[in-house]
Design a protein that fits this description.
Number of helices of chain A: 22
Oligomer: heterotrimer
Distance between the termini of chain A: 20 Å
Number of helices of chain C: 6
Distance between the termini of chain C: 18 Å
Radius of gyration of chain C: 17 Å
Structural class of chain A: mainly alpha
Strand content of chain C: 25-35%
Strand content of chain A: under 5%
Radius of gyration of chain A: 23 Å
Mean pLDDT of chain C: 88
Order of helices and strands of chain A: HHHHHHHHHHHHHHHHHHHHHH
Order of helices and strands of chain C: EEEHEEEEHHHEHEHEE
Helix content of chain A: over 70%
Mean pLDDT of chain A: 87
Largest interface: A-B, 63 and 73 residues
Low-confidence stretches of chain A: none
Largest sheet of chain A: none
Shape of chain C: globular
Low-confidence stretches of chain C: none
Number of strands of chain C: 11
Helix content of chain C: 25-40%
Structural class of chain C: alpha/beta
Chains: A mainly alpha (about 500), B alpha/beta (about 350), C alpha/beta (about 220)
Chain lengths: ~500, ~350, ~220
């Protein structure tokens, strides 16, 4: 890759993704750290780690079999369940928490752990599915001959485990940074506080930003602690990759277990996606106070009428962020994968924007962009775009690096020998060969941007976003409107991925 | 001749996107207003101000999820490099006072504020309060008799153990409310109240909701018998037809806390003239009357302002006497204490 | 005239020495066979000459010009004018491009005007007998066809030397004979310097001017053909 291109991408990444974080961290004075490591906050941190570990374990226990069943076996409708299995990670965790808290008396730490585990299980399922698919047919057939389905699982589980653990690390990170779910689920009964509460409360109790940023550091540390093994697994190439003479494995026959397996898959889907969505539909139609189709129609009409411009803005912001993140992610992801030891550092640095709490990133964004020279950007919709792009670039970088890892380097080398310069190779050789990853990363950034609120909530453009409108309406108690608008958001978040899944010939490469 | 690959149509789509994004927030407005009163209540009024004055107002709202901290935080941050807000219309008082304390607000004695009682005005005129919300108990009338609930201490009555709710006092109105109690009840009693709440919450005797709107939901759905909330949240449940009543506690004691909306002009407001016009406009009695009529049922602080029957007047409750200046000064320190008590 | 001169060339991969020191000179227009067991460093040597891997020591000179000096690359791979046919059936072909687009891309990289490209592509297609398959992508070609396309691609930019990494590997006996005849024809017509890695020297030794045996990263023997 050309050095100027990499440098340009690095500069863009530094401005968009690192500067907001560094500006804030620079405000921490040594004395701000004094109160951070007290007994109380450390106890909170311990509980948060427990929550993360529990949620990751739930995600692993649910995601691993789910991924196996939908990717490799003849469970009826596997393809559909595989596509729909992504839904829970696209729904705001609070929606899932609210629907289950509303219908059951599950409360407290265990319930919180279960909800966050269910929200993040698709990560494990996706990675496990990919890893199961990349087991060579010959290896599998040998295991099948030796020990049947049990033999296959015994041979393949150790091969798939690193991928599943990698995803579980991300599930851990998502769980420990969430404060809305623990807060909501333990609102009846003993309160179950987590460290993310401490971070939020510190913004209000601190005289200046230094202590508030300092309060976030233990959580950042815990996040980094989880991302480190994930990066190690990647670096050591333990994630599924296949050799050039790879033979795709066939579908495994479950025999009598086919229908029980279907029940298991549907049960997971029901708990994690269909029930929360169903509840939204129910509420859009009037809920417990009288459900009717006419009511639902009216709610959707109102949501479209009032939320149309917000939906447009959000789509524009998210599309803009995806367009910016893709070229930068492509160049950096490529450099990360192809540059050996330097790539290791780049991978660690690339994760910084997602390792910090969203509120810190957002205020950092104000500090960086609200200046006389960049005021025009700050006041416009670009601000939301740049913040989204900066915050979610790590996912694009990692997704591209994963895709480049699967790309035969000889494809680029032969272009090089043909005399193609780096930019030309990138545009004409690498990009077309990575098309599913290009679309996949764009989609990933788009989806994350559509459902993100916290990082941009403080900048002017946030006002016109659809999530802003949604959360505003929550306060008004207009449950039918909120439900209808939430369903519209879910539709726009899910639609591009589903369209690709069902109509494109090549599978979407979206996994970081 | 075939070219190696189709030429990507990036430039044109990028251009369209860029223009779209600029259009999303384009043009220099005549006034930038930061508003943390719910968009649904405030937006129609702001629109009318625009129509009446011909001024172009860019309003930036806050949301419940931010618990009223967002805009104040943003004002502080922007003031460091490039102040852009002219007027801050806050739905509460403590953050505004804190901003005034930090020297971020300009003094302005609006002629429209003449009738507003001094308790709701900054002696130095850096902010003015109007259209208040009361901190009340919302009671589910199928689970509890409102007549039996009289004082703030009833929250801790063993009878209601596990059936009462409040929001965690780390942000929002509950934070302001608890801070005010230290000043009204005195340090010892205020601490006793908050510590009792924290202790009960830790073992499930008191349910801690995510916010006041959530307290309202818990009560209207019968998951709690009663709990602390604001009158606007209560009014939403009332309008939806739920079996709820509002109790204005401590009529014979310290009284009920009224938290006014506050309006203030930023010290470095880029458009001070328009800012003053807006403040004069929004403080007019007619606006307060309209806010009383709205779904938020804001309580006019001027006795002369007409209000619908469901909005209380001075005869319906005893107003707690509050030194807002002292509340604003102590809110951060108290929040740090609440953090110690409630985040365990 | 010496086309390729290697002086004390060493290559390390991941800190482990895999090649060298190698001292070797290839005369212009000669065909040299590079033989040796798997892992002896044959492919690495081709990559070092082409500029695709960075040596740890020694020099590579192409037509008297220093292409690399120690770990310092003086002429990057894209400017060395070297054609390389990778090991495997059409390995390294661009999966998204048709045969015609592949050749067009190479010619465009070399700055051949658009008006001349059609003619040159026709010649190349003719040479490797891919007529009628111009609009196919690598995935739609058989192993032999793909390897012929790889050869046409390696020759499209008028290289001064041709590096062949077991180009006949996956092909059956008839195709192997056919392809090797084509390569020999081009080699002679263009006066190319060819370095040919093979694990089956008997098949092609009648073509070669010389044979070099590599073991454990070092030259063990040189045999004039």
């Amino acid at each position: 890759m050309s050095r100027p291109l990499v440098v340009a991408a690095l500069v863009a990444f530094a401005v968009l993704g690192l500067a907001p974080v560094l500006v804030m961290v620079a405000r921490v004075a040594p004395h701000d750290l004094a109160g951070v490591f007290g007994q109380r906050s450390m106890a909170l941190l311990g509980r948060t780690a427990l929550l993360g570990g529990g949620a990751a374990a739930v995600a692993l226990v649910v995601g691993l079999p789910y991924g196996f069943l939908v990717a490799r076996t003849d469970v009826p409708g596997a393809r559909t369940w595989r596509a729909l299995g992504v839904l829970p990670i696209l729904l705001p965790p609070l929606v899932i928490a609210m629907s289950w808290a509303g219908m059951t008396s599950l409360r407290g730490g265990l319930a919180t752990t279960a909800v966050l585990g269910l929200c993040t299980f698709p990560l494990v399922a996706l990675y496990a599915a990919r890893a199961f698919e990349r087991i060579d047919a010959r290896q599998e057939e040998a295991a099948l001959l030796a020990g049947g389905l049990r033999g296959v699982l015994r041979v393949e589980l150790p091969l798939v485990m690193p991928s599943a653990l990698f995803a579980a690390c991300f599930a851990f990170v998502l769980a420990i940074n969430d404060f809305a779910v623990p807060d909501y689920v333990s609102s009846i009964g003993p309160k179950w506080n987590v460290y993310a509460d401490e971070v939020f409360a510190s913004w209000r109790s601190s005289q200046s930003t230094g202590p508030a940023v300092a309060a976030a550091l233990p959580l950042v540390f815990l996040t980094a602690l989880a991302l480190w093994p994930a990066l190690e697994l990647r670096r050591r190439n333990h994630l599924a990759s296949f050799s050039s003479d790879f033979r795709r494995p066939g579908t495994l026959r479950l025999g009598a277990w086919r229908w029980p397996a279907l029940v298991l898959v549907l049960a997971v889907l029901c708990v994690a996606a269909i029930t929360p969505l169903g509840r939204l539909v129910f509420e859009a139609g009037g809920g417990t106070r009288g459900f009717s189709l006419a009511h639902m129609q009216a709610a959707f009409a109102r949501a479209l009428e009032l939320g149309r411009s917000n939906l447009q803005s959000s789509l524009l912001f998210a599309a803009g962020a995806a367009l910016i993140a893709v070229p930068i992610g492509l160049v950096l992801g490529h450099a990360l994968e192809r540059s050996g030891r330097a790539g290791r550092w780049l991978a660690a640095v690339a994760l910084v924007p997602i390792a910090v709490p969203a509120i810190l990133f957002g205020i950092g964004g104000i500090a960086v962009w609200n200046r006389p020279q960049t005021g025009v950007v700050y006041d416009s919709g670009w601000m939301a775009v740049l913040l989204f792009a900066g915050r979610f670039l790590p996912f694009a970088v990692l997704a591209f690096s994963a895709a480049v890892a699967m790309l035969d380097p000889r494809i680029e080398e032969s272009a090089r020998l043909a005399g193609a310069r780096p930019a030309r190779r990138l545009l004409w050789i690498v990009t077309p060969a990575l098309l599913p990853a290009v679309f996949g990363s764009a989609l990933l950034v788009f989806v994350l941007s559509m459902r993100e609120l916290d990082a941009t909530i403080l900048v002017p453009a946030a006002n016109s976003s659809v999530l802003f409108r949604l959360y505003n309406a929550v306060h008004f108690g207009r449950d039918d409107f909120v439900a209808a608008l939430a369903l519209l958001v879910v539709f726009f978040v899910v639609a591009p991925g589903l369209l690709w899944t069902f109509f494109a010939r090549r599978r979407l490469e979206v996994l970081p | 001749m075939t070219s190696p690959a189709p030429r990507p149509r990036v430039p044109r789509s990028c251009l369209a996107l860029g223009l779209g994004l600029l259009a999303a927030c384009s043009g220099e407005p005549d006034l930038i207003l930061y508003c943390s009163l719910d968009q649904g209540f405030s937006e129609p009024l702001i629109l009318r101000f625009e129509q009446e004055t011909g001024l172009d107002v860019r309003t930036e709202f806050d949301i419940e999820a931010n618990k009223n901290v967002g805009l104040a935080m943003r004002i502080r941050e922007e003031a460091k490099s490039r102040p852009r807000c002219d007027v801050f219309w806050s739905n509460e008082c403590a953050q505004t006072v804190a901003l005034a304390e930090d020297g971020l607000l300009a003094a302005y004695d609006s002629p429209s504020a003449r009738e507003i009682p001094e308790t709701f005005r900054d002696p130095q005129r850096r902010w003015t309060g109007f259209a208040a919300r009361a901190r009340v108990y919302i009671v589910n009338t199928t689970l509890a008799d409102p007549a039996e609930i009289k004082t703030m201490w009833d929250l801790f009555d063993p009878r209601w153990r596990g059936k009462v709710a409040m929001a965690r006092p780390l942000a929002g109105m509950t934070n302001t409310h608890m801070t005010a109690l230290y000043l009204t009840l005195g340090e010892a009693e205020g601490r006793r109240y908050v510590e009792t709440a924290a202790k009960l919450a830790a073992d499930g005797g008191l349910n801690l909701a995510t916010g006041n709107a959530h307290v309202m939901r818990l009560v209207r759905e019968g998951q709690a018998a009663f709990g602390w909330t604001d009158t606007d949240d209560y009014n939403v449940a009332r309008l939806e037809g739920y079996p709820v009543a509002a109790v204005y506690p401590d009529r014979d004691g310290v009284g009920t806390l009224l938290i006014p909306n506050t309006v203030s002009i930023q010290k470095s407001a880029p458009r001070p003239e328009a800012a003053r016009r807006f403040v004069d406009w929004v403080l007019r009695p007619e606006i307060e009357a309209e806010l009383a009529q709205s779904r938020g049922a804001q309580i006019p602080v001027r006795a002369s302002v007409p209000r619908p029957a469901h909005v209380v007047d001075a005869t319906g409750f005893t107003a707690m006497k509050v030194d807002w200046h002292a509340v604003g000064q102590s809110v951060q320190k108290r929040t740090a204490e609440f953090q110690e008590l409630f985040l365990k | 005239m010496i086309a390729v001169l290697l002086e004390g060339l060493r290559v390390e991969l991941g800190g482990r020495p895999v090649l060298g020191p190698i001292d070797l000179a290839l005369e212009r227009g000669t065909w040299t066979l590079l033989v040796g067991p798997s892992g002896s460093g044959k492919t690495t040597l081709l990559r070092a000459i082409s500029g695709l891997c960075v040596p740890s020591a020694g020099r590579v000179l192409l037509d008297g010009q220093v292409a690399s000096d120690g770990a310092r690359i003086r002429i990057p791979a894209e400017r060395r004018q070297v054609g390389l046919v990778f090991q495997g059936g059409g390995a390294g072909l661009w999966p998204h491009m048709t045969a015609r687009a592949t050749l067009d891309f190479v010619l465009a990289c070399r700055g051949v005007p658009r008006s001349e490209r059609a003619h040159k592509i026709g010649e190349l297609i003719e040479m490797v007998e891919l007529r009628g398959l111009e609009e196919r992508r690598p995935g739609e070609l058989s192993g032999g066809e793909a390897q012929r396309l790889a050869l046409a691609r390696a020759l499209a930019h008028d290289p001064r030397m041709l590096l062949l990494d077991e180009p006949l590997g996956p092909l059956d006996a008839r195709l192997r004979g056919d392809l090797i005849e084509r390569i020999r024809d081009v080699h002679e017509r263009r006066g190319l310097t060819t370095l040919h890695v093979t694990h089956d020297p008997h098949e092609v030794e009648h073509l070669a001017d010389r044979s070099v045996r590599l073991e454990l990263g070092r030259i063990q023997a040189e045999v004039e053909g």
